Amino acid sequence: MITNNAEFLDMGAQHFHKLNSERSKRHLAKRLESLGYKVDLAK
Q1: Which of 6, 14, 25, 29 is found 20 to 30 A from 37 (Cα to Cα)?
Q2: pTM
Q3: Burial (CB count <10 Å: 0-12, 13-18, 19+), residue 24
């Protein structure tokens, strides 16, 4: 940005979740399980 005079482009809060959605699903499911929830992901 500074070195090549590019404008800042905000990718949004969900950028990394969209980038690797399978990893995000597993991570969030494990997080819920650690809080005592039973998680069953179905599409």
Answers
A1: 14
A2: 0.56
A3: middle
